[in-house]
Amino acid sequence: MYSKPDVNIHEHLLSAITVLIDDNPLAIKQAKEMKNFNFKQILTQRIDIIRDDPRFLEEKEQAQQLFNSLFQN
User: In Å, how far from its chain's centre is CA 50?
Assistant: First the structure.
């Protein structure tokens, strides 16, 4: 759902994913290693799409924080 454009629940999906991986090393490992779903690419593309749009400020911050938590370690 997060990879689909103009879905009104993007921010909620990011919040749910953040809750699932928070202090959960196994969930973080699984999120990083998903073979059939390139979450890193999806987050990167979405951040690029919403980067300069002030309507998506909260989503962009959540997406960047999630990206950093998963892929910048």
Answer: 12
